[in-house]
Amino acid sequence: MSDAVTPAAPQRCVLRVRSNEPERGCIRLVLEAPDSWPAAAPGQFVMIHLSGTGVARHDPLLPRPMAAFRLTGEGSTEPDGTRCLEVLYKVVGRGTALLAECQPGDSLALVGPLGVPFPMPQPGEEAVLVGGGTGIASLFELARTLRDAGAPLRVLLGARSQDDLMALADFEALGVPLELATDDGSAGHHGLVTAPLEPWLGAGSPLRIYACGPTPMMVAVAELAEKAGHPCHLSLENRMACGFGICLGCAVRSRGDALHLVCRDGPVFDAKELDLGALP
Amino acid sequence: MSDAVTPAAPQRCVLRVRSNEPERGCIRLVLEAPDSWPAAAPGQFVMIHLSGTGVARHDPLLPRPMAAFRLTGEGSTEPDGTRCLEVLYKVVGRGTALLAECQPGDSLALVGPLGVPFPMPQPGEEAVLVGGGTGIASLFELARTLRDAGAPLRVLLGARSQDDLMALADFEALGVPLELATDDGSAGHHGLVTAPLEPWLGAGSPLRIYACGPTPMMVAVAELAEKAGHPCHLSLENRMACGFGICLGCAVRSRGDALHLVCRDGPVFDAKELDLGALP
Amino acid sequence: MSTTPDLSVEFAGIPLRNPVLTASGTFGYGVELEPFLDLRRLGGFVAKSLTLEPRHGNPPPRIAETPAGMLNAISLENVGVEAFIEEKLPAVPDGVPVIASVFGTEIELYAEVCKRLTGVPKVAGLEINASCPHVKAGGIEFGQSPDALGRLVRACRQATTLPLVVKLSPNVTSIAEMARVCEGEGASGIAAINTVQALEVDVETRRPMLSNGLGGLSGPAIRPVALRMVWQCAQAVSIPICGVGGISTGEDAVAFLLCGATAIQVGTASYLNPAAAGEVADGIAAYCERHGVASVRELIGALEHS
Amino acid sequence: MSTTPDLSVEFAGIPLRNPVLTASGTFGYGVELEPFLDLRRLGGFVAKSLTLEPRHGNPPPRIAETPAGMLNAISLENVGVEAFIEEKLPAVPDGVPVIASVFGTEIELYAEVCKRLTGVPKVAGLEINASCPHVKAGGIEFGQSPDALGRLVRACRQATTLPLVVKLSPNVTSIAEMARVCEGEGASGIAAINTVQALEVDVETRRPMLSNGLGGLSGPAIRPVALRMVWQCAQAVSIPICGVGGISTGEDAVAFLLCGATAIQVGTASYLNPAAAGEVADGIAAYCERHGVASVRELIGALEHS
Ligand SMILES: Cc1cc2nc3c(=O)[nH]c(=O)nc-3n(C[C@H](O)[C@H](O)[C@H](O)COP(=O)(O)OP(=O)(O)OC[C@H]3O[C@@H](n4cnc5c(N)ncnc54)[C@H](O)[C@@H]3O)c2cc1C
Ligand SMILES: Cc1cc2nc3c(=O)[nH]c(=O)nc-3n(C[C@H](O)[C@H](O)[C@H](O)COP(=O)(O)OP(=O)(O)OC[C@H]3O[C@@H](n4cnc5c(N)ncnc54)[C@H](O)[C@@H]3O)c2cc1C
Ligand SMILES: Cc1cc2nc3c(=O)[nH]c(=O)nc-3n(C[C@H](O)[C@H](O)[C@H](O)COP(=O)(O)O)c2cc1C
Ligand SMILES: Cc1cc2nc3c(=O)[nH]c(=O)nc-3n(C[C@H](O)[C@H](O)[C@H](O)COP(=O)(O)O)c2cc1C
Ligand code: FES
Ligand code: FES
User: How far apart are CA C263 and CA A222, in angstroms?
Assistant: First the structure.
């Protein structure tokens, strides 16, 4: 494998909700995607507008960014083979609580796919994917793409407890090497996901680290990776208003004190570019 | 019959939507009413809040007033005998368009029953109910109550065309004397609903007129009734913010230049009290 | 585990059971809400603004909906101060502090109403409505000119011994300056904000939605503006502040307390939910319990800001 | 039956295909929206405010959601006037009038930027941002003091021959007075309004939602306030007015035209729907067709009001 996929041009589209059911660690939103809806590259996201598509409501006003978890369809997991976009989310505030109220048959306006995808590993590198919390959703397409390409990878997932481990069954179904860590020890290592990461870092073989999750976790992963001299890519989850580079609301500071837009220059960044101490 | 029913104290309650289906001239919203939900007296209304009952949305902000069309249940028309509040409405703007998007299983917050009901006819008086447009909904409970009491009544309903005649089947099922008028002549008299009214006014027997509908129709009815010397009650449909007398938003001017609140002193008024020229 | 939090505060010298009052003009004369809400769950209530003589207000339409807000131009319709004292006050349950709101088209008329209300049982304080944005002669000038506001507060201060709260208009360049004027003239407290002057148009009829043309914007839409102004007043003066504007939950109320308000008022929210003010009080208590706050007074001005 | 309505207007001497511009700071430098919207469907676009030197703006968080609105404190981050001319302008399609927005922390810096932009191809006019509410030194003073505003407009007027639009702050007691000052100093037009100064608090962390503390409120929540201010400006001056604030549909835009605006700007709505400005233009056309309006110019100031 080598370079990143060239991402498709983003679109605005109204998608029908097929299902929106709670499962382990998250709610799985399945949206029926028209054929024109572009496939997202690993690490890309969509903006989901929460105010319906019929009569406009102005509250809540802003759309919410969500990783494009997976596009099914061509080789779909849906029983009837419909092309579907899946999004996995946790209820953390008002917007996600409203999303959870959506019923099959409702329509949602989406803009996407957006953002710069994960760069692929260089030949000879092993990919190590480290996910925590809702960040797990951003890593699945990367894992699937690498697996399909036969590239070496391993996946480490962390959460508060085993009930919080979103997408676990999906990763298991991929059949990739998988290690877990939970704060309460209910699944895998007892403690932070950095614990199972450390042994690999020093193993000597060239690695490329990909991390998405809570800021403290990403900072810890980035620091370990830097110390061990492995390239490391972080996918950030900032508050966003637009998602496509016009509000400048999602800026993060780089080490050279420049500002980058998470939605346009990211969400995936080389950890070395970022001022880790200034992440929100 | 003599005096009006003493209205029940209003409540705020969350009701489940059982169905919300378009039919001739309107949409019929059927809400499951808990046993504690008070029966409305003829002419009373409810305030329906449109922003859901889960996560609060602030847009649209204000509830909408709607006649309590009918409470089924004890002797219900619902197949399973559930106690249900029915509301019949037309989509005229944003609020009613959002109401039309409600699905079975959704919940709506209601305040009611509110307002002063229709006074009953005096012994010896025949009731003449004149309804137009959405005003038809406000008259059904009055017709039913009078029919059940064996009181003499006749009902005149007007609309643009026969497809706009809401609640027609309900009135027909009551088996009361019914005359229709449509602007396009597609049902009943060709023209205004005042045309079939006029012959009765001069017939010599004591009448009591009840009207609800567009302002020009009510003004015309009130003027005819006054000329013929019959008491006349109008049910007004003003914009409202609260529905229970605290915002003073729904004021109308009386002939003596006093102001009355439609929600608290009405919606039913003696036509003689109102400054008909100042109705909104 | 946690004991019940202490919600009591003292606002402008008036002891309140909890920081939740109702906003003038949005709670009638206190009794209309009885079927829905026991007034004794609240800190107190502010009555509809009173003038010396009864007032009729504007012809309909007087209200319109806007995104997350509403416009009104009721224009201070009220029963007049005499009828309030004779007919409305007796119905208010005992033990509920009443703050009477005072309005006039001239300074002398304000002072007259203040005098008349002084010593009347149940009236715990006065709120000077210096800020009604849609009365053509009157409030707007007092509320928008520091000089006129100063003269108004001085006259009212001399007319009464009751706690004197001044309710400010948001339609000014610097609300802090207006608050300082009030403090300088001996006001006991500030209420901020009244409605924001606004206009809504019906494009089908090409007319304003309100008969009056302009109206006052209230509701959640203005909450962040009210919060900013309360914070600015709190930085500017040391008399207590009552926060008003778009409050509909306990969390909304807590935000105002953190910004420096000692008490808050629930307005428009009562229209959508007649029990709103009671639910706001419950919500503040729940917040305190969740965060281990023993007394709501710990929250006042506790915003952390670099 | 009906012929296609004529949507063209002339604003501040700039001929526009239709009255729809995009608001400064909400449309990037014009090219970011290309996947969603052909710029040639619009009357033109107003670019992000430019300063003489590039500016970084505030640390995150810079935005927060409010009821029917949002807060921002981007603090005028921009590439600087040189980079705009060299790197951004060339990418704008031909035939789309560009209005460059100008900002500075001192009057001389504003004038410098105006000079630099004069004569640059594609730049059809300048908009002076006299109204950024969250830059500590700068905009707020110019926009809130008639004297300072007068001096600013005079200096800019002398620095350029281009049409000069002044964008006003809503955070003032009388926007009509500010508009008159601009007209007196030779401004070609007024844009109203910029964001309303506001504050939002996270009660869980007890901190403001924005790193900057205060921010500017935009979106549908402020539309009725913007509409009132446009109407007041239109009553006060005879130079043309561009309405800004919460516009997201053709009907919203028509309301501003009726209140006296010659053109309008779409801001926050583009964040939710990148094609919003195009849809607003289509919506105006549809309104005109539905109401038999041959030229959109018939709507300007056509509000019926007793
Ligand atoms: C590129 C990207 C991809 C994402 N993918 C996913 C995903 O696949 N699944 C998922 O569950 N979540 C994902 N998120 C996070 C998701 O956007 C937020 O959880 C959501 O916006 C919160 O909205 P809310 O209204 O429920 O919370 P709010 O009420 O807005 O906020 C609740 C809390 O969440 C914080 N918050 C608000 N917005 C964000 C945000 N964008 N990111 C993180 N915290 C936020 C607030 O500061 C607050 O503490 C992603 C974010 C980004 C930027
Ligand atoms: C006591 C009472 C009982 C009512 N009963 C019924 C009923 O049983 N069925 C029914 O369909 N309607 C009824 N109405 C009318 C109903 O309340 C309005 O149609 C509704 O509020 C319009 O809301 P909207 O958001 O769809 O329209 P908006 O967008 O608010 O307005 C659309 C148009 O309707 C007008 N309008 C707004 N509010 C009202 C109002 N309250 N009454 C009349 N016109 C209004 C507006 O001026 C505008 O022209 C009743 C009104 C009252 C006061
Ligand atoms: C219909 C209505 C009538 C009002 N009447 C008065 C009044 O008489 N006196 C007054 O000081 N404020 C009056 N107000 C303003 C409110 O007290 C309050 O300051 C404002 O509505 C903001 O608070 P809210 O957003 O919670 O409603 C009125 C507000 C509304 C909506
Ligand atoms: C994120 C953001 C950035 C903005 N940046 C600028 C700016 O650089 N210059 C300016 O004059 N106005 C700026 N504005 C204000 C808008 O141009 C507009 O006046 C305001 O948002 C109201 O319009 P709206 O409600 O349609 O967004 C900005 C607004 C937002 C939301
Ligand atoms: S979210 Fe708007 S620029 Fe990134
Ligand atoms: S609707 Fe509020 S007083 Fe009648």
Answer: 47
Rounded-to-10 torsion of CA D78, D82, D87, D92: 80
What pLDDT, on the 0 to 100 scale, is given for residue C55? Answer: 87
pTM assigned to the model? 0.95
- Answer yes or no: is pLDDT of A4 > 80: no
Task: Of B98, B52, B18, give the one whose Cα is nearest residue A100.
Answer: B52
Burial class (CB in 10 A: 0-12, 13-18, 19+), A117: buried
CA D194 to ligand 4: nearest atom: 19
Structural domain boundaries, residue D235? 9-299
The one-character DSSP state at D135 is: -
Mutate to test the pocket of ligand 2, among B61, B237, B269 (most ligand atoms within 8 A of CB): B237
Look at residue D306 and tell me if it is in a domain. Answer: no
C191/C12 Cα distance (integer angstroms): 10
**Residue C3 forms part of a structural domain:** no
User: Between B4 and B194, where is the model more confident?
Assistant: B194
Domain assignment present for C170: yes
* Stretch D279-306: mean pLDDT: 95
**C87 — phi, psi (to 5°)?**
-105, -35
Our answer on whether the CB atom of C26 is closer than 6 Å to any ligand 3 atom is yes
Element (H, E) at B146: helix B136-148
CATH code assigned at C175? 3.20.20.70
pLDDT for C59-113, tens place per residue? 889 999 999 999 999 888 889 999 999 999 999 988 899 999 999 988 999 999 9
What do you get for the CA distance between the two ends of chain A, in Å?
Answer: 33
Q: Report the range of poorest mean pLDDT among C271-275, D110-114, D135-139, D191-195.
A: D135-139
* pLDDT at site A234: 96
CA distance A54 to chain C (A): 16
Q: Which chain C positions have a beta carbon within 8 Å of B92's beta carbon?
A: none
Give the number of domains in chain D.
1
pLDDT score for C306: 66
The answer to the question of residue D4 being in a domain is no
- Quick check: D31 contacting A, CB < 8 Å? no
Contact between D74 and A56 using a beta-carbon 8 Å cutoff? no
* CA–CA separation, B11 and B38 (whole Å): 8
